[in-house]
Amino acid sequence: MGYKENYQAWLNEPTLDATLKKELQTMDDATQQEAFTAPLSFGTAGMRGIIGAGIGRMNIYTVRQATEGLARFMDTLPAAQKQQGVAVSFDSRYMSQQFATEAAAVLGVHGIPSFVFDSLRPTPELSFAVRHLKTYAGIMITASHNPKQYNGYKIYGPDGGQMPPAESDKITEYVRSVTDLLGIQVMDVHTLREKDLMHIIGEGVDEAYYRAVGTVTINADLVKTVGKDMSLIYSPLNGTGRIPAQMVLRNAGFENFELVLPQSTADPEFPTTPFPNPEFPQTFDLAIEMGKKSHADVLIATDPDADRLGTAVWTGSSYQLLTGNQIASLLLHYILEARKQAGTLPANGAVVKSIVSTELATAIAKDYGVEMINVETGFKFIGDQIKQYEETGSHEFLFGFEESYGYLIKPFVRDKDAIQSTVLLAEVAAYYKSQGKTLWDGIQGLYDRYGHYAEKTVGLDFPGLEGPKEMAALMTKFREESPADFAGVKVVSTEDYKLQRKTNADGTSTAIDMPVSDVLKYLLADGTWIAIRPSGTEPKVKFYVGTVADSKDAADKKLADFETALTNFKNS
Predict the structure, then answer these.
(1) pLDDT value at position 464?
(2) 144 among known catalytic residues
(3) Is 286 within the bounds of a domain?
(4) Which terminus of the chain, N or C, has fewer Cβ atoms within 10 Å?
(5) Do 263 and 182 belong to one domain?
(6) Contact 8, 32 (CB under 8 A)
(7) How many other CB atoms sit within 10 Å of the CB of residue 262?
C-alpha cells in the first residue's frame, strides 16, 4: 500500500490508541508521507526513530511488531530455550516504560516469560541481567543519546551481547513478515502476572551488578588514600545513571563527589540540553560551573541509558573535554600499567577496538606486549570476540572500546558500560592526582611517549525520504572513483568491508575475513587512515580521520587538510 492507504487504515482503525488517533487527525500530507511510506528500519542493532503515529515511527504498534518478530523466532527454538524468557529494561524517555510493558504483553501471548525491571535501568545492567538470569534474550527500550523526540528498541542475545548476525537476520525476517501491525495480539498485565508470564525484577539484580562492578577497581589502596578525597562531579544527563553511579562510586571508596542536580532527575525532556550526548560540550556547561566553584578534579557525564561516558578535566586554567579516543587511551594505559605493577598482566592479553578508533591504543598495547584486535563498528563485534576467547581460551580480554565514547572493562557485561567506566576513570584520575597531575597531564604524557595521535569524525546528514538513496549514492561514488590520494598523500591500500577485499595501490588484493559491512577504509602513506560508513542508527554518513604527527599543531593541520580533501572529493 502507498502512504495514503496506510495512513487511512490507521485512521479508520476503531481500536487505535486515542493519543495516536488525535495525532493522525492533525497530520499534514508531508508528515503523512514521512510517517507512512516506509516501515521503521529494523537491523542488527534493533530500531530507533521519532516517537509518533505511523509505520515509520516509534509507537506501541511498531514495538509490538518488533516483539512479535522476536517471539515468532523464539517459537522455533527448543522449548527449554524458549522458556528461559526475555529480560526487559527501559530508560527515562517518553513512553519507555509503556513500550517495555507492550513487549511483555506480546511475549506472553506466545507463552514466553518476561523479566521486566520495576523502574528505569541502564543498558549495561540489562546486558548483565540477561547473563545473570540466564534468559535467552533481552530487550532494551532506549534511544541512547538521541534528542528527546526519539526512542528505540534493542535486542540482546543469550550471552548479553547484541543479538548475533545469524539470529538477528532471522528475527528481522520475522519482523518484516508481521504486516498487520494493528492486529497483533497482546495479553493484559493482570493475566500475564496470573499466568506467571511476567516477572518484576529489581534490587536482586542491582545488588549482583554492583558486586560485579566492585571488581573493576584495580588498586583499592590508591582509592582509599587518594580517591576518597578527590573532588568529582557527576551528571547522568537526566537519564538512568544517577543511582547506579552513586552506588558504585561509594562502594569503591570515592566519597567526595557531587551531582549536577538539574541533570539528576530522570526527565524525558532533557531540559538542560537538546542533545543529551556526553561528547557535546554544552552537556558539560552546568558541571563546569560547579567545577569552577569547587575546584573539582574531574567532571563525568553519562548518556541517558548510561552506556556512553564523557569527561571534562582541569588543564590548569580551564576545563577541557576529552575525546572518546583520549578517554579510552587513558583507561587502557592505566589498566596495563596497574596490572603490570601488580604482576597480573597476562601473557595472552588482548584489547579489542573498532576499526575507526584511535591507533594510539594500538601503540600502547604493543608497548605492554598485548595484542590489539580490530573489529567492525558496533559493540556487538567486541562482544563476539569476548565470546570467542571464552570458548577457545586463546586470549584474556583486558579492555574494549569504540571511539564513540563506549568502553568495557570487565566482560560480565557485553555492551558499552558507562557505570564500570565511571569507577575506573575516577581511579585513573586518582592515579594521576597521586603524582600531582591531572587527567589532562596524563593524556599529554601519552602523546609525549607514543606520538601525537589525533582523530576527527565528521557526519553528513541525509534527512527525509531520499536520505537513504543519497547515502548509498555517496558510498557508490567513493567505490567507483577509487581516490588515489587525499590532500596529496598517496593511498597505499583500500579496505572494502562490503566487498570483503583489501586492494593495494599496485593492484594486488587480499580477502578480508570479517562480517560484511558497508565501510570503506583508506590507509595512507604517512600513517593516516580515513574511513567512511553510513550510520546504523541515524540518517548520516560518517567520515573518520586518524593521523599522527610530532606535535599537536602538525596533527591538527593534517586533520584539517584531509577533511578539506574529503569534502572536495564528495562535491566533485
Answers:
(1) 79
(2) yes
(3) yes
(4) C
(5) no
(6) no
(7) 12
Q: 490: domain CATH number?
A: 3.30.310.50
Residues 6+ apart with CB under 8 A from 275: 145, 147, 282, 283
Measured CA distances, 397 to 365, 416, 562 (Å): 12, 14, 34
**What tens digit of pLDDT does each residue of 166-175 get?**
888 899 999 9
Q: What share of the chain is helix, strand, coil (3-state, %, to 5)?
A: 45, 20, 35
DSSP secondary structure code for residue 261 in this structure:
G
Question: Which residues constitute the domain of residue 228?
Answer: 214-450
Q: Where a domain ends, among 177, 209, 241?
A: 209
The label of the residue with cell 497482546 reads: 186
Domain count, the chain: 3
Q: What is the CA radius of gyration of the chain?
A: 24
Looking at residue 72, which CATH number applies to its domain? 3.40.120.10
Asked whether residue 16 is domain-assigned, the answer is no
Residues 144 and 185 in one domain: yes
Which pLDDT tens digit goes with each residue over 116-172? 999 999 999 999 999 999 999 999 999 999 999 999 999 999 999 998 778 888 999
Whether 21 maps to a domain, the answer reads no
Q: In terms of domains, do 350 and 223 share one?
A: yes
- What would the grid cell of residue 402 be? 569504540
Answer yes or no: do 357 and 382 share one domain.
yes
- Residue 14 makes CB contacts below 8 A (sequence gap 6+) with none
Task: Give the residue carrying C-alpha cell 574529503.
Answer: 566
Please choose, from the candidates 70, 59, 36, 241, the residue with its C-alpha nearest in 3D space to the C-alpha of residue 150: 59
Residue 223's CB is within 10 A of a number of other CB atoms, namely 22
Task: Give the pLDDT confidence of 221-239 residue by residue, as tens digits.
Answer: 999 999 999 999 999 999 9
The per-type count for the chain, helices as H runs and strands as E runs, is 20, 23
| Nearest-angstrom CA–CA distance, 166 and 73 | 12
Catalytic residue, candidates 92, 144, 168, 329: 144
What is the helix (H) or strand (E) element at residue 429, kind and residue range? helix 418-433
